[in-house]
Amino acid sequence: MLRKNCFACDRIHAIKRGTNPYFVKELSESYLVLQDQQSTRGWCVLLLKDHHEHLGNLPPRRAKRIFEDVLKTAEAIKKAFRPVRINYECLGNTLHHIHWHIIPRHRNDPTPLWPVWLWGKKKLAGKVVSPALRRRLIIMLRRAFR
Description:
alpha+beta
């Protein structure tokens, strides 16, 4: 079940309507979207298909399938963007809907020892991609899943 006033649920409604321009792929337990800001090229987010706030409250088999989605996404990111490392984040501090950030870290990373959350709002918000680049990144990811 999806909830009103939940940013992730709103995104999922848009995916179901075919109006979410960041949508990449439907997976077993989640929807894969490109992160709005591409502070690091290929940053993706997996949104659990229905509204749950705590990963630990899900049945273990379902949690395992979610993590399989995370691993499949990481493999696609590796194929598409060839990062030197990938960070995995499932936080829930500000968005109370189970979701995973899969964040590629590249050779030109200015702060390779820092988590992206320490970059500050200016850097995180500063890389909004054009619609053309967004489409290209999504195509690269979809091809990498094949």
